[in-house]
Amino acid sequence: MRRSLTATILVYVAVAVFVASILAPVAWLFIMSISDANDLTTIPLRWIPEQPDFSRYARLFSLEEGSAGLAFLSALRNSVVVALSATAIALAAGIPAAYSFSRFPGRMPLLYAVIVTYMMPPVALILPLYKVFSALGLLNNVTSLIIVYCTILLPFVTWLMKSGFDSVPVEIEQAASIDGANLFQILSRITLPVAAASTGAAALFALLLAWDEFFYALLYTSDTRAKTLPVAIADFAAGRATDYGLISAVGLLAALPPVLIGFFLQKSLLSGLSAGSVKG
Amino acid sequence: MAPAQQDRTAWLLLTPMIAIMVLVTAFPLLNTLWLAFTDASLTGQGYVWQWVGLENFAYILDDSDFRAAVGHTAYFTVLSVSIEVVLGVLVALLLNQEFKGRTLVRALLILPWALPTIVNAVMWRLIYNPEYGSLNALLTQIGLLDAYRSWLGDPATAMNMVILADIWKNYPLIALIALAGLQTVPKDLYEAAIMDGANAWTRFWKITLPGIMGSLSVAMVLRAIEAFKVFDIFYVMTRGGPADSTKTVSFFVYQESFTYLRAGSGAAYALTVTAMSALMIAIYVVMLVRREKRS
After folding, report:
1. Residue ranges in chain B whose pLDDT is less than 70
2. pLDDT tens digit string along A73-108?
3. What is the DSSP secondary structure assignment for residue B51, as one 8-state letter?
4. Is A125 in Cβ contact with B25 (below 8 Å)?
């Protein structure tokens, strides 16, 4: 269908507004991170800093006692450890479960129960889990976060991987089973490699979920030994004498890994979305 | 494999998942259920408690603070999800047009979606900041505002400003879903409609919207379930203030349990919130079951 010139101009104007609305807030975060406090309080505001100042980024990579860098780097370490470990556990238990749901149908109510637990509000679990971790001496310990995150990641991985396995034809497994391969060999040598793309996507989505989690981390951690990035960022933002530039720099650095993963996931995001299973 | 053997294998494969879910979800949930009928406190080792029957729930029934929190949460959920859906569909229609750089522009939708929730909250708090904030600067420089305002410090604006921040982060996901849905609507339907003299407005309501409604309604319910649980963005942006005007149900349970350390009534509030969520989750499961039956 041909478009009139007016319609074309309208489309380009609307696209420009859309692009600006997405980029401007993030651009502002970056500008704050390299601006001097005096530039930011000037009225009318000077939008581009006269002297870009990258020193906050340098400060975030220093390990001095009590410094912002120490808080940031330990939170980064905790976030990486928690996200990777929780994802590994979720995959180890979720893949066999998903395979079972996909290849041996008849347990649909159980699958729905799994999905329901994924959507249940965390407030339903916070008190007993707090008591148990406190009794086991696991409060303020990354182990407790790794355990808790299974409540979110495991149902999610199971659900996503089930639709991944559903799209692998049963025929290729039957050929191997005639050749005498057992179930474990079939799953690890045939089905998983064929479903590699959806396995990878499930793993990356799980990492993003764990990286983003805040509520449990806020309740169960109290210092640099276990605080994850979201909690550390909330701390930076809550401080009395706040350096807004520093908060912005921390936020941008914490956003970098998930945003890169997000762009990488673009394709599987769309197929995952049509399966109706990606976090809303 | 024989059916009995198949059944055994199926359960064996499910065992690790079931074991973990029973330990970290089922047990805690049952424990919360029990706590809700006690007056347990969170302090000290173990619980010191007495059975109080339905007392906690009776108290909730005429707790006007909790009712206010339910109201705030419902307002937040309804307003942000409905605007996200409308905006998402509009942006999807726009990005479905032909223009130069379309692939790149579509990829921008990923940015807000992938940005961590806490970073989004901090970012908008800085934008709304009364002294440093770019919103005040922008609005005064284009002449829409006379003097700098405290957007999050004023009960009249705080909630709506948080909703705006939530919309910015979450409508791109709806747009992506709608965009994917648009690709599945058959092109010849449009050609036939044009032949019949249907205008763009009619074509949208009769062809486009019915075509994407399936995936859109699932996304809408998912968003509503998520929005009802909201905590992070309010914790960073307002802490439930000013004057409790942005206190949501999750924040309410958090305070009751971890600030006032009342485990018994905290659990009762938590169960009440869970029951409300369960209604929306039930709608979602019904949708899933119907979809499963169709395929």
Report:
1. 1, 295
2. 999 999 999 999 999 999 999 999 999 999 998 899
3. B
4. yes
* Cα–Cα distance, A93 to A97 (Å, whole number): 7
Cα A51 to its chain centre, rounded Å, is: 35
B277: Cβ contacts below 8 Å, ≥ 6 apart: A119, A120, A121, B225, B228, B229
Q: Is A125 on the interface with B (CB under 8 A)?
A: yes
State the Cα–Cα distance between residues A125 and B73, nearest whole angstrom. Answer: 20
**Average per-residue pLDDT in chain B?**
92
Q: Do residues B232 and B222 touch, judged by C-beta distance below 8 A?
A: no
* Global pTM exceeds 0.90: yes
In the numeric block, which tokens belong to residue B200? 């763009």
Name the B residues in 43-62 with CB < 8 Å from any A CB: 45-47
Cross-chain residue pair A123–B273, CB shorter than 8 Å: yes
The ipTM is 0.92
The CATH class of the B49-294 domain is: mainly alpha
Report the Cα A234 to chain-centroid distance in Å: 17
Instruction: Supply the DSSP symbol for B255.
Output: I
- The residue of chain B nearest to residue A144, with distances taken between CA atoms, is B24
Cβ-nearest to A158 among B17, B25, B113: B17
* Cβ(A201)–Cβ(A264) below 8 Å: no
Please judge whether A127 and B29 are an interchain contact, meaning their C-beta atoms are less than 8 angstroms apart: no
Q: Which CATH superfamily is domain A63-274 in?
A: MetI-like (1.10.3720.10)
A151 Cβ under 8 Å from any chain B Cβ = yes
Retrieve residue B152's tokens: 């999050």
Delimiting residues of CATH 1.10.3720.10 domain(s) in chain A: 63-274
Nearest to A43 by CA among B126, B153, B145, B157: B145
- Nearest Cα of chain B lies from the Cα of A1 at a distance, in angstroms, of 9
